[in-house]
Amino acid sequence: MSSGSVSYRTLFSLPGGTFVTVSALARLPLAMSQLGTLLLVSSPQVAGRLGPGGLAAGIVALAIAVGSPIFGALTDRHGQRTVLLVQSLVGGFALIAEGMAAEMGATWPIVATIGGVAGFFMPQIGTMARVRWRAMGAANPNIEAGVLETSFAWEGSVDEAAFALGPALVGILAVLAGPVPGLLVAGSMLLVLGSWFALDPTSKLVEGHRGGTDRPGVSTPLERRAPGPLLTAGVLATCVGMIFMGMVFGSVQTGTTSLATEAGRPGLAGLLHALLSVGSAAAGLALPRLARRLDLVARWKLFALGLAVFAAPLLVVHHLGPLVPALIVLGMAAAPYMITLYSVAERSASAGRIGTVMTLMAAVNSLGYAFGTTMAGRLADRGGATPAYAVTFGVAVAATLLAVLVARKVTPVGG
Q1: Are the C-beta atoms of 352 and 233 separated by less than 8 Å?
Q2: Do residues 137 and 1 touch, judged by C-beta distance below 8 A?
């Protein structure tokens, strides 16, 4: 499969504007759930302390990481429609129940447990959309390579935008009306938009596999061969790379929070961290043009190196002013790096395993985020923002070494 691209107009014409819009908005509840839980449990209404709030948010993140590959495997076998509908309904009601439990005076462990249920059932809309784009590409073989390149760039950019807008929405609602409305809104959005995405006509393109075909969404009742191995060399390597990316996000958020707190402006931490997503989303949208010039191996190495180079200035940033351009520039390597990893994983995935692989990538990214925040948090408590940002730089260097050592070995020929 050669590299190439199609225009966004051509891409969006395949499923129609409704799919594009709904899939973009339906991933906001995922981006809102962790911060919403953190603010709720940390508030005087529940625990009144940051420690339990952080633990509750970690429970949600861990539940997402555990549940995502399980439901991804179910979509591979049974299709997306029913599985995502169940996830959206249970997850949406759980988010609403979490907020209502706090209103009724529940203790923080109960609120956190309900949040964990919501996290476990939380649908990975972005990864499921990638699976559908893959099926749309297979249905249009003359532009398949271009559909994959452009759709993965789009999805990566929308993911970044969602993780900037979701927390911002939670924060605004918390300022205006307290911590509960953020979770109520997230739950309501998941009930409506998640179910809408589950029932969208494009779900018929991925009705499930019982093995035997390399084409997504193309199977026959006669095909009963078991799916191939899950952890191919390419999938394993890209999962490691995605853990590194999660650690970058987690350590940057921790370092930025520390620096903002030191400056007496802790409320700016969320807005500053969103700048990382701004640069990332913008660069991701432009990636299809670069795909015409560089293959996947070259892109993997280039953007991993970009992470390391662009993370280095954080080590000498001690004020909020210089932090703004530093975060925007670092973000310009983030989305292209993630999009490249998703593309390599998609080409490396065994037949009938694509849903599992895509959700596994999202899950290990969440794990990396947890590792990054934990490691950087301990260092920030001892020495402030610079040691936290040192984690960012060190992980980015590790990502570069991974790319140099394995990218050419594990990327399928033609990638």
Answers
A1: no
A2: no
